[in-house]
Specification:
The protein is built from 18 helices and 17 strands. By secondary structure, the protein is α+β, with helices and mostly antiparallel strands. α2 runs parallel beside α10. The chain is globular, with a radius of gyration of 29 Å.
Length: about 650
């Protein structure tokens, strides 16, 4: 059957070379390959951004150096994805349309079609490691629309190929036989002359965006809740619900909605910023929002569109917004550095160097990076994406460890003596685990696995279901694993999760859990040493005793790894006073006093105020305050202060 299909494809491709206008276009039926379920065209991805990610991955595999994605946000009636990749020949186009899920990548046919390198079918014609595999990337747009256009051209071709695609909505219905092909939709294809013979690349134009996709990108659920608050006169809820940064909200007539004292749109960058500066500012705004707070989530400060930009920047082969931690210099004593052991009961060894110019990678004796990804740029509405991870110059906290800890390791598993049909071949990777008292945003907490620089999984906060009770410490770790060989077969079809039973996943999971054990033991030991030094010089007065009580509560609750905030009670002009370094929570003392029932308290006893400060720290450590509204916080603290001041109340 496959041979008949190949012959049929070649016949249509030969006809297509004679077609030079839409009037002469060929009409045929879209068919799927038997390696993918028919339902693929109904959308296998959870979010619109996942579909956009697959289109960018296709451009990367086509050796594009830039991709430009343009939308008419916040309307989202049209999305255009343009790249300067190698483009597709008529043969490649027809193969794509007739083999959804039957990717020619990594095959001899892919070499014939110019999709992969003649010398190595696992790489692109220019030598990039391919990150696409299943052949469904271009049809991932079914998540976004059921109608789209493809315009593609290869270099030195006097014609470009144009395809109009209409995808069918999947529906379960009786079929003639088990081997009958599911008709995924219909297409029109033609060739038309072009003046720029040297041009090459592909443009995908998405129109008639699906309503549910538009609603997601527009954050309609969020804005709907805000509209309900406005209608109910709940000004405080309205103010707290509007994200700090957003692209604006449209009403049913397509007009911008303006909320009192709020901008029509609020972006984390300025119009005068360069594409690189714009995204760097977006990352900086996240860390700025984290100051004075125990944690910050992307959903707290960004709407759905800006969250999509962030997630795409994590998923694809981009350079970092600063530097990779492995490429950072060890100068300035900015972190503790360790080499991880691959022994099941091994311990991490501290690394030191007298050479300030050496990098973390060199210090850990890892081989040079294979790819830097500086030759691939993606702009979305004029903003250039970079990996949103920072490792240096992070905000200080009250944790006893004032520097981050960097753990570096690598492994190669040959699976000797095991059939490749069982092991799926060798597995090789390198990784870092970065510990710091606070990770921002919380979505960057966990482990992210990259295969040839790309990932669809984002950060897994469970660290592949790590069972040891280290919840606080796990929230303080960012980990990236860079797979050089293997693991691709363990990816599930959505490329956003792994088959946990696959041998490669099992080996990687075992290595990660062993590394987490080494990190925890090393971090505990270092923190304990510093605490002992600090306790030796602590004053033996009332305030130090109260501080130890707070530390004890912190240790009991979080194994000593939680961050105890500064507590400030302010009155009048004191609210403008400078804040100490680290996380600070401020409370209006006048409002707290007003919550003490049936009393007048001009000024509380200083001793009681110090005790209230300690109690507030403990409440913060146990996460009580963050569950309350500001009004409820004032009432709780007022009640506690009232009890302590009972004898002095009038």
């Amino acid at each position: 059957m496959s041979q008949l299909r190949h012959t049929h494809d070649q016949e249509i491709a030969n006809q297509l070379r004679q077609v030079t206008s839409q009037m002469e276009s060929i009409e045929s039926t879209l068919t799927t390959n038997d390696r993918v379920i028919a339902r693929v065209t109904d959308g296998i991805y959870r979010q619109p951004g996942s579909a956009v990610r697959e289109l960018i991955a296709n451009a990367y595999d086509a050796d594009a150096t830039w991709v430009s994605i343009k939308t008419d946000a916040p309307n989202f009636s049209r999305i255009t994805v343009e790249d300067n990749g190698s483009g597709m020949t008529p043969e490649a186009v027809i193969h794509l349309l007739h083999n959804i899920g039957g990717s020619a990548k990594r095959t001899e046919q892919g070499q014939e079609l110019g999709i992969s390198s003649p010398g190595d079918p696992t790489t692109s014609p220019k030598g990039r490691k391919l990150i696409g595999k299943l052949g469904i990337g271009i049809f991932s747009v079914s998540q976004l629309t059921h109608s789209f256009q493809i315009i593609t051209k290869t270099a030195n071709d006097r014609h470009r190929t144009v395809v109009l695609v209409n995808l069918s909505q999947f529906a379960d219905k009786p079929v003639e036989s088990d081997d009958s092909e599911f008709q995924a939709g219909r297409y029109q294809v033609w060739r038309e002359p072009t003046e720029d013979v040297n041009a090459h690349g592909t443009t995908i134009v998405l129109t008639a965006i699906r309503p549910q996709t538009r609603d997601t990108l527009r954050s309609e659920q969020l804005w709907g809740a805000i509209d309900n608050h406005v209608a109910g006169g709940a000004e405080a809820k309205t103010r707290s619900a509007i994200p700090a940064y957003h692209i604006g909200h449209l009403d049913s007539h397509g007009l911008h909605v303006e909320y009192q004292k709020h901008k029509l749109r609020s972006l984390p960058w300025d119009d005068r910023d360069t594409p690189e500066e714009a995204f760097a500012k977006m990352v900086d705004k996240v860390w700025k929002a984290a100051q004075g707070r125990t944690s910050v989530k992307l959903t707290d400060i960004f709407d759905a569109y800006l969250q999509m930009l962030w997630n795409l920047s994590l998923a694809l082969p981009f350079p970092y917004v600063g530097k990779s931690v492995l490429d950072e210099s060890v100068a300035d004593d900015w972190a503790y550095f360790y080499k991880l052991s691959n022994s099941p009961k091994g311990a991490a060894q501290q690394l030191q160097s007298a050479d300030p110019g050496i990098t973390v990678r060199e210090l850990a004796e890892l081989p040079p990076a294979q790819v830097t990804h500086h030759d691939f740029k993606v702009l979305i509405d004029g903003v250039q994406l970079s990996r949103p991870l920072k490792f240096r110059n992070l905000p200080t906290t009250q944790h006893v460890l004032k520097k981050p800890m960097v753990f570096v390791g690598s492994q190669r598993q040959e699976f000797k003596g095991i059939s490749q049909d069982v092991s799926a071949g060798p597995l090789e990777f390198e990784a870092y685990l970065f510990w710091t008292p606070k990770i921002a945003p919380t979505e960057n907490q966990g482990v992210l696995v990259r295969i040839h620089g790309a990932s669809g999984t984002l950060f897994d906060s469970t660290f592949f279901n790590y069972q040891v009770a280290e919840l606080t410490r796990l929230r303080q770790i960012t980990c990236e694993i860079f797979v050089k060989q293997g693991l691709e077969a363990a990816l599930n079809i959505d490329r956003e999760s792994f088959n946990t039973a696959h041998p490669h996943t099992v080996v990687l999971t075992r290595w990660l859990h062993n590394s987490l054990r080494q990190l925890a033991n090393t971090q505990k030991r270092q923190a304990q040493q510093l605490r002992q030094e600090a306790r030796g010089s602590a004053k033996r007065d009332t305030e130090s005793r109260i501080s130890r009580i707070v530390d004890s509560a912190n240790s009991l609750r979080t194994d000593g790894e939680g961050v105890v905030p500064h507590i400030r009670f302010t009155r009048g002009d004191e609210k403008a006073a400078a804040r100490p370094e680290g996380i600070t929570q401020s409370f209006d003392l006048d409002r707290i006093i007003e919550e003490i029932p049936e009393t007048s308290l001009p000024s509380p006893n200083p001793s009681n105020l110090r005790k209230l400060e300690a109690i507030t720290k403990i409440l913060s450590v146990y996460g009580v305050l963050e569950q309350l509204t500001p009004k409820e916080q004032d009432n709780l603290l007022g009640s506690i202060l009232g009890i302590m001041e009972a004898e002095n109340l009038v």
